[in-house]
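Sequence in, structure out.
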Amino acid sequence: MKFGTLYAYWVRDWGADYCALAKKAKKAGFDVLEVGAGDLLNMSDAQLAELKATATELGLEISANLGPPKDKDVSSADPAIREAGVKFLCDIMHQMVKIDCKILIGALYNCWPYDFKDLDKEGLWKRAVEGMQKVGDEADRLGITIALEVLNRFETLLLTDAAEGVQFCRDVNRKSVKVLLDTFHMNIEEDDLPAAIRATGEWLAHLHVGEGNRKLPGMGHLDWTAIGAALKDIGFDGMVVMEPFMKAGGSVGSDIKVWRDLSGNADEEGMDRMIAESVAFLRKAFA
Protein backbone atom coordinates (compact mmCIF):
# COMPACT_ATOMS: atom_id res chain seq x y z
CA MET A 1 0.00 0.00 0.00
CA LYS A 2 1.03 3.59 -0.61
CA PHE A 3 -0.08 6.37 1.70
CA GLY A 4 -1.10 9.82 0.56
CA THR A 5 -3.09 12.92 1.36
CA LEU A 6 -5.38 15.29 -0.47
CA TYR A 7 -3.73 18.67 -0.94
CA ALA A 8 -6.73 20.53 0.52
CA TYR A 9 -5.62 19.77 4.09
CA TRP A 10 -3.31 22.77 3.79
CA VAL A 11 -5.54 25.30 2.00
CA ARG A 12 -8.83 27.15 2.53
CA ASP A 13 -9.76 27.46 -1.17
CA TRP A 14 -9.66 24.86 -3.92
CA GLY A 15 -6.52 24.97 -6.04
CA ALA A 16 -2.96 25.34 -4.85
CA ASP A 17 0.75 25.43 -5.61
CA TYR A 18 1.07 21.68 -6.02
CA CYS A 19 4.86 21.70 -6.25
CA ALA A 20 5.09 23.39 -2.84
CA LEU A 21 2.53 21.01 -1.33
CA ALA A 22 4.33 18.00 -2.80
CA LYS A 23 7.34 18.97 -0.70
CA LYS A 24 5.13 19.25 2.40
CA ALA A 25 3.61 15.84 1.70
CA LYS A 26 7.00 14.22 1.29
CA LYS A 27 8.33 15.81 4.48
CA ALA A 28 5.29 14.52 6.39
CA GLY A 29 6.02 10.96 5.27
CA PHE A 30 3.63 10.40 2.35
CA ASP A 31 4.09 8.47 -0.89
CA VAL A 32 1.24 10.18 -2.77
CA LEU A 33 -0.13 13.70 -3.23
CA GLU A 34 -3.74 13.87 -4.42
CA VAL A 35 -4.35 16.97 -6.54
CA GLY A 36 -7.45 18.64 -7.93
CA ALA A 37 -8.05 17.02 -11.32
CA GLY A 38 -9.87 20.03 -12.77
CA ASP A 39 -6.85 22.23 -12.08
CA LEU A 40 -4.81 20.19 -14.55
CA LEU A 41 -6.86 21.69 -17.40
CA ASN A 42 -5.76 25.19 -16.37
CA MET A 43 -2.05 24.34 -16.20
CA SER A 44 0.32 24.92 -19.09
CA ASP A 45 2.55 22.15 -20.41
CA ALA A 46 5.46 23.86 -18.67
CA GLN A 47 3.61 23.85 -15.34
CA LEU A 48 2.66 20.22 -15.78
CA ALA A 49 6.26 19.35 -16.60
CA GLU A 50 7.41 21.14 -13.44
CA LEU A 51 4.91 19.21 -11.32
CA LYS A 52 5.99 15.92 -12.87
CA ALA A 53 9.67 16.73 -12.30
CA THR A 54 9.02 17.75 -8.69
CA ALA A 55 7.07 14.57 -7.95
CA THR A 56 9.73 12.42 -9.61
CA GLU A 57 12.51 14.10 -7.66
CA LEU A 58 10.63 13.58 -4.39
CA GLY A 59 9.64 10.01 -5.20
CA LEU A 60 5.95 10.90 -4.95
CA GLU A 61 3.08 9.57 -7.01
CA ILE A 62 0.13 11.75 -7.98
CA SER A 63 -3.56 10.90 -7.92
CA ALA A 64 -6.26 13.21 -9.27
CA ASN A 65 -9.49 13.99 -7.41
CA LEU A 66 -12.63 15.48 -8.94
CA GLY A 67 -16.20 16.43 -8.15
CA PRO A 68 -17.61 17.43 -11.56
CA PRO A 69 -19.57 20.70 -11.84
CA LYS A 70 -23.27 20.61 -12.73
CA ASP A 71 -22.66 21.60 -16.36
CA LYS A 72 -20.36 18.56 -16.77
CA ASP A 73 -22.67 15.93 -15.21
CA VAL A 74 -22.64 12.65 -17.16
CA SER A 75 -25.94 11.63 -15.50
CA SER A 76 -27.81 14.78 -16.58
CA ALA A 77 -31.10 14.52 -18.44
CA ASP A 78 -29.66 17.06 -20.92
CA PRO A 79 -27.71 15.28 -23.70
CA ALA A 80 -25.46 18.32 -24.26
CA ILE A 81 -24.43 18.35 -20.61
CA ARG A 82 -23.75 14.61 -20.69
CA GLU A 83 -21.58 15.02 -23.78
CA ALA A 84 -19.72 17.92 -22.15
CA GLY A 85 -19.18 15.77 -19.06
CA VAL A 86 -17.63 12.92 -21.00
CA LYS A 87 -15.35 15.32 -22.89
CA PHE A 88 -14.38 17.04 -19.62
CA LEU A 89 -13.29 13.78 -18.00
CA CYS A 90 -11.43 12.64 -21.11
CA ASP A 91 -9.63 15.98 -21.43
CA ILE A 92 -8.52 15.68 -17.80
CA MET A 93 -7.13 12.20 -18.44
CA HIS A 94 -5.08 13.51 -21.37
CA GLN A 95 -3.52 16.06 -18.99
CA MET A 96 -2.92 13.32 -16.42
CA VAL A 97 -0.80 11.43 -18.92
CA LYS A 98 1.58 14.41 -19.05
CA ILE A 99 2.34 14.07 -15.33
CA ASP A 100 2.33 10.27 -15.27
CA CYS A 101 -0.80 10.25 -13.08
CA LYS A 102 -2.47 6.84 -13.31
CA ILE A 103 -5.68 7.22 -11.31
CA LEU A 104 -8.67 9.58 -11.54
CA ILE A 105 -11.01 9.41 -8.56
CA GLY A 106 -14.21 10.98 -7.26
CA ALA A 107 -17.96 11.10 -7.80
CA LEU A 108 -17.39 11.20 -11.55
CA TYR A 109 -20.77 9.58 -12.29
CA ASN A 110 -22.72 12.66 -11.10
CA CYS A 111 -22.04 16.28 -10.20
CA TRP A 112 -20.73 17.34 -6.82
CA PRO A 113 -22.18 18.66 -4.65
CA TYR A 114 -25.45 17.23 -5.92
CA ASP A 115 -28.54 19.44 -5.57
CA PHE A 116 -31.12 16.59 -5.39
CA LYS A 117 -33.44 18.30 -7.87
CA ASP A 118 -33.66 15.16 -10.01
CA LEU A 119 -34.64 12.18 -7.84
CA ASP A 120 -35.18 9.71 -10.68
CA LYS A 121 -32.49 7.31 -9.49
CA GLU A 122 -33.18 4.75 -12.21
CA GLY A 123 -32.81 7.34 -14.97
CA LEU A 124 -29.74 8.92 -13.40
CA TRP A 125 -28.13 5.50 -12.95
CA LYS A 126 -28.76 4.47 -16.57
CA ARG A 127 -27.36 7.71 -18.01
CA ALA A 128 -24.39 7.66 -15.63
CA VAL A 129 -23.52 4.09 -16.64
CA GLU A 130 -23.61 5.06 -20.32
CA GLY A 131 -21.41 8.08 -19.69
CA MET A 132 -18.88 6.16 -17.63
CA GLN A 133 -18.69 3.47 -20.30
CA LYS A 134 -17.47 6.12 -22.73
CA VAL A 135 -15.02 7.51 -20.19
CA GLY A 136 -13.92 3.98 -19.33
CA ASP A 137 -13.15 3.24 -22.98
CA GLU A 138 -10.75 6.19 -23.06
CA ALA A 139 -9.29 5.27 -19.68
CA ASP A 140 -8.65 1.73 -20.95
CA ARG A 141 -6.84 3.18 -23.95
CA LEU A 142 -4.70 5.51 -21.82
CA GLY A 143 -3.91 3.00 -19.08
CA ILE A 144 -5.68 5.05 -16.39
CA THR A 145 -7.78 3.66 -13.55
CA ILE A 146 -11.10 5.30 -12.75
CA ALA A 147 -12.12 4.95 -9.08
CA LEU A 148 -15.72 5.95 -8.46
CA GLU A 149 -16.32 7.30 -4.97
CA VAL A 150 -19.14 5.95 -2.86
CA LEU A 151 -20.59 8.92 -0.94
CA ASN A 152 -23.13 9.34 1.84
CA ARG A 153 -26.84 10.05 1.35
CA PHE A 154 -26.39 13.80 1.86
CA GLU A 155 -24.03 14.15 -1.12
CA THR A 156 -25.47 11.81 -3.75
CA LEU A 157 -28.39 9.46 -4.32
CA LEU A 158 -26.57 7.11 -6.70
CA LEU A 159 -23.68 5.28 -4.99
CA THR A 160 -24.25 5.42 -1.24
CA ASP A 161 -22.81 2.10 -0.07
CA ALA A 162 -20.20 -0.40 -1.18
CA ALA A 163 -22.79 -2.74 -2.70
CA GLU A 164 -24.10 0.01 -4.98
CA GLY A 165 -20.55 0.93 -5.94
CA VAL A 166 -19.77 -2.62 -7.01
CA GLN A 167 -23.08 -3.01 -8.89
CA PHE A 168 -22.54 0.24 -10.76
CA CYS A 169 -19.05 -0.82 -11.85
CA ARG A 170 -20.43 -4.20 -12.94
CA ASP A 171 -22.99 -2.36 -15.06
CA VAL A 172 -20.31 -0.14 -16.61
CA ASN A 173 -18.26 -3.27 -17.36
CA ARG A 174 -14.98 -1.59 -18.25
CA LYS A 175 -11.60 -2.88 -17.05
CA SER A 176 -10.54 0.57 -15.87
CA VAL A 177 -13.65 1.42 -13.82
CA LYS A 178 -13.43 0.43 -10.14
CA VAL A 179 -14.66 1.52 -6.69
CA LEU A 180 -13.37 4.08 -4.21
CA LEU A 181 -14.47 3.66 -0.59
CA ASP A 182 -14.11 6.45 1.96
CA THR A 183 -14.19 5.74 5.71
CA PHE A 184 -15.94 9.06 6.44
CA HIS A 185 -18.86 8.18 4.17
CA MET A 186 -18.77 4.51 5.21
CA ASN A 187 -19.11 5.54 8.85
CA ILE A 188 -22.52 6.99 7.94
CA GLU A 189 -23.79 4.33 5.55
CA GLU A 190 -22.21 0.95 6.30
CA ASP A 191 -23.21 -1.41 9.12
CA ASP A 192 -19.67 -2.81 9.31
CA LEU A 193 -16.71 -1.05 7.65
CA PRO A 194 -14.33 -4.02 7.46
CA ALA A 195 -17.13 -6.24 6.12
CA ALA A 196 -17.91 -3.68 3.39
CA ILE A 197 -14.26 -3.60 2.37
CA ARG A 198 -14.15 -7.40 2.18
CA ALA A 199 -17.38 -7.47 0.16
CA THR A 200 -15.95 -4.94 -2.31
CA GLY A 201 -12.89 -7.14 -2.76
CA GLU A 202 -11.11 -6.87 -6.09
CA TRP A 203 -13.33 -3.96 -7.14
CA LEU A 204 -11.60 -1.68 -4.62
CA ALA A 205 -9.05 0.50 -6.42
CA HIS A 206 -8.58 3.39 -3.96
CA LEU A 207 -9.33 4.14 -0.33
CA HIS A 208 -9.95 7.52 1.30
CA VAL A 209 -9.39 7.63 5.03
CA GLY A 210 -10.52 10.01 7.73
CA GLU A 211 -12.39 9.88 11.00
CA GLY A 212 -16.18 10.14 11.24
CA ASN A 213 -15.90 13.93 11.62
CA ARG A 214 -13.21 14.24 8.91
CA LYS A 215 -10.35 14.62 11.37
CA LEU A 216 -7.07 12.84 10.77
CA PRO A 217 -6.93 9.06 11.25
CA GLY A 218 -6.13 8.33 14.88
CA MET A 219 -8.02 11.34 16.24
CA GLY A 220 -11.43 9.64 16.48
CA HIS A 221 -13.26 6.38 17.10
CA LEU A 222 -12.71 4.31 13.94
CA ASP A 223 -10.97 0.94 14.34
CA TRP A 224 -8.02 1.37 12.00
CA THR A 225 -6.46 -1.98 12.88
CA ALA A 226 -9.65 -3.77 11.80
CA ILE A 227 -9.81 -1.69 8.61
CA GLY A 228 -6.19 -2.55 7.84
CA ALA A 229 -6.86 -6.24 8.42
CA ALA A 230 -9.77 -6.14 5.93
CA LEU A 231 -7.51 -4.53 3.33
CA LYS A 232 -4.96 -7.33 3.83
CA ASP A 233 -7.68 -9.94 3.48
CA ILE A 234 -8.59 -8.71 0.00
CA GLY A 235 -4.96 -8.20 -1.05
CA PHE A 236 -5.40 -4.45 -1.47
CA ASP A 237 -2.20 -2.86 -2.77
CA GLY A 238 -3.49 0.53 -3.94
CA MET A 239 -3.36 4.04 -2.53
CA VAL A 240 -4.64 4.89 0.93
CA VAL A 241 -5.23 8.64 0.79
CA MET A 242 -6.23 10.87 3.69
CA GLU A 243 -8.98 13.38 2.98
CA PRO A 244 -8.98 15.39 6.22
CA PHE A 245 -10.82 18.71 6.57
CA MET A 246 -10.15 20.46 9.87
CA LYS A 247 -10.27 24.20 9.16
CA ALA A 248 -13.41 26.27 8.62
CA GLY A 249 -13.56 29.06 6.08
CA GLY A 250 -13.04 29.56 2.38
CA SER A 251 -14.56 27.51 -0.43
CA VAL A 252 -13.16 24.27 1.01
CA GLY A 253 -14.79 24.76 4.41
CA SER A 254 -18.06 25.85 2.80
CA ASP A 255 -18.30 22.96 0.34
CA ILE A 256 -17.28 20.34 2.92
CA LYS A 257 -19.49 21.93 5.62
CA VAL A 258 -16.78 22.57 8.21
CA TRP A 259 -18.35 25.16 10.49
CA ARG A 260 -15.91 25.10 13.40
CA ASP A 261 -12.19 24.66 13.84
CA LEU A 262 -11.38 20.97 14.37
CA SER A 263 -7.64 21.44 14.67
CA GLY A 264 -7.42 22.98 18.13
CA ASN A 265 -6.60 26.30 16.40
CA ALA A 266 -3.34 24.81 15.14
CA ASP A 267 -0.93 26.99 13.19
CA GLU A 268 0.85 25.78 10.04
CA GLU A 269 3.58 24.07 12.05
CA GLY A 270 0.96 22.32 14.17
CA MET A 271 -0.97 21.17 11.11
CA ASP A 272 2.23 19.75 9.62
CA ARG A 273 3.05 17.94 12.85
CA MET A 274 -0.43 16.42 13.22
CA ILE A 275 -0.58 15.01 9.71
CA ALA A 276 2.93 13.55 10.03
CA GLU A 277 1.88 11.86 13.28
CA SER A 278 -1.29 10.57 11.59
CA VAL A 279 0.45 8.89 8.64
CA ALA A 280 2.93 7.27 11.03
CA PHE A 281 -0.02 6.02 13.11
CA LEU A 282 -1.82 4.67 10.04
CA ARG A 283 1.25 2.84 8.70
CA LYS A 284 1.59 1.13 12.06
CA ALA A 285 -2.12 0.27 12.28
CA PHE A 286 -2.10 -1.21 8.78
CA ALA A 287 1.25 -3.04 9.20
